[in-house]
Specification:
This protein is of the alpha/beta class. It has two domains: 198 residues, Glycogen Phosphorylase B (Rossmann fold, 3-Layer(aba) Sandwich), CATH 3.40.50; 169 residues, 3-Layer(aba) Sandwich (Rossmann fold), CATH 3.40.50.2000. Helix content is 37%, strand content 18%. The strands form four sheets. An eight-stranded mixed β-sheet has the order 1-6-5-4-9-10-11-12, with helices on both faces. Strands 15-14-13-16-17-18 form a six-stranded parallel β-sheet, sandwiched between helices. Helix 1 packs across helix 15 and helix 11 packs across helix 14. It is elongated and about 70 Å long.
């Protein structure tokens, strides 16, 4: 391990107690029974979160785990965040109850801005022997995650995991389809050694269960409805894109790479322009295929990476969101687009399949039906009032996607893993055989 962040946290402090929030008691007038109305004390935990991606890296996994870490920290849990050092500027930082543990990493091929953590089992054994967590949460399945699993197992620590990236589905987009089955074997072996694997949708749970994955739990995703808000719509930004108030603006947000199925995006947009020649296409994000895509559609706006309120304004200033990807475990951009008041056209799976009611708050197409996807996109482009009505309903749906509920669900999985570990440590009593 290359570095442990210097914080003021005392990770030996016993945090297994909580604050009683109600000390009132009530007594029945007609009996001597006294009823204690104290609320159950919520146990504060020491949690080691192991991830190979974290902000400021930009992707769905880093954004989601950051919200979970923030939520757990706000509730008083003590956290070790184990992750690769991102670059030379990634130095000591932290705050009370949040220890950043930086490990060595290597750039991922084709994605040099992202790091793959290197095996760190010996360092993690030392860390968790001296600063033992109650539970270990594995976010990614790379070399760092695998060594963390081995270290936690050696020390008898409860482990929960996330299934957040369809690596096995990516293989065919890079000419490596033959690796799909070996990848699934690796992933199944990894996750089946944990107390539970959290997945974001029921559809993914069913798919993985059919492939032999065990102890799967559905824990969905939330969305920041203050950041992604229709009120951030900007006529000035639309004018910069060459769009008037009545021009349909089509948006796609994500990595510009083969696994995102962007060929279908451009085919669908060509169909939209055939119906409405003034339509504009805006892509937010970056990736290895940017130059190639810009050559294919020179009239499109390639806005690059956007963050914070600027990202929120880019979402809200569009009208229609096309999501052609077929390799997602969830797709955070779908609820972000819905929260921003956009009409989403997507395939009936992952986040779109979970959140969209076809014709009410968005438009769904049978998975991999390219022709239907293009037809649906073309139709909504020519009906801008309908698109805005769908977007208004999408916003109402997004308002219910509270991150607090997601953190509740993650806490519940930690508690269940601890409970199971405690039961496993109890002695097994065997009844004596009857004499005779």
């Amino acid at each position: 391990m290359s570095h442990v962040a210097n914080t003021n946290i005392d990770i030996d402090t016993d945090t297994d107690t909580g604050t009683r929030t109600d000390t009132r008691t009530a007594a029945r007038a007609d009996s001597d029974i006294v009823v204690n109305s104290l609320r159950p004390v919520r146990r504060l935990l020491r949690v080691a979160v192991v991830t190979e991606t974290y902000p400021p890296e930009v992707n769905g996994v880093s954004a989601t785990i950051a919200r979970v870490v923030e939520g757990l920290h706000a509730r008083g849990h003590e956290l070790q965040l184990v992750r690769p050092r991102q670059d030379r500027t990634d130095t000591d930082h932290g705050e009370a109850r949040l220890l950043h543990v930086l490990t060595r990493g290597l750039p991922i091929p084709r994605y040099p801005q992202l790091k793959m953590g290197l095996p760190s089992q010996r360092a993690l054994l030392h860390l968790w022997t001296t600063h033992r967590p109650d539970v270990v949460h594995l976010v990614t399945e790379g070399p760092l995650g695998w060594s963390a699993l081995r270290a936690a197992t050696h020390l008898g620590l409860p482990v929960v995991s996330d299934f957040r990236t369809n690596f096995h589905a990516y293989m065919r987009h890079y000419g490596l389809a033959w690796l799909r089955n070996p990848m699934m074997i690796y992933l199944r072996r990894f996750h089946n050694r944990t107390a539970c694997t959290m997945v974001p949708t029921e559809g993914l749970r069913s798919e993985l269960a059919a492939s032999g994955f065990k102890r799967l739990r559905v824990v969905s995703r939330g969305v920041d409805t203050r950041l992604f808000d229709p009120s951030r719509r900007s006529d000035a930004l639309r004018l910069k894109w060459g769009a008037s108030r009545s021009t349909p603006v089509v948006l796609c947000v994500g990595r510009l790479a083969a696994e995102k199925n962007l060929d279908l995006l451009f085919t669908a947009f060509e169909a939209m322009r055939a119906a409405v020649p003034s339509a504009r296409l805006v892509l937010v994000g970056d990736g290895p295929d940017r130059a190639q895509l810009a050559q294919r559609c020179p009239g499109a706006v390639f806005a690059g990476m956007r963050h914070g309120e600027d990202l929120g304004a880019h979402y809200a200033s569009a009208d229609i969101f096309l999501f052609p990807s077929i390799t997602e475990t969830f797709g955070n951009v779908v609820p972000e687009a819905m929260a921003s008041g956009l009409a989403v056209v997507g395939f009936d799976y992952a986040a779109a399949g979970q959140l969209i009611r076809h014709g009410d708050n968005g438009l769904l197409v049978r998975l991999e039906d390219r022709e239907a996807f293009c037809d649906m996109a073309r139709g909504v482009a020519g009906e801008l009032p309908r698109a805005r009505a769908l977007g208004a309903q999408a916003r109402l749906t997004a308002n219910r996607l509270d991150w607090g509920r997601i953190v509740d669900a993650v806490e519940a999985e930690y508690t269940a893993a601890l409970h199971d570990a405690d039961l496993a440590r109890l002695p097994t009593w065997r009844a004596a055989a009857p004499a005779g």
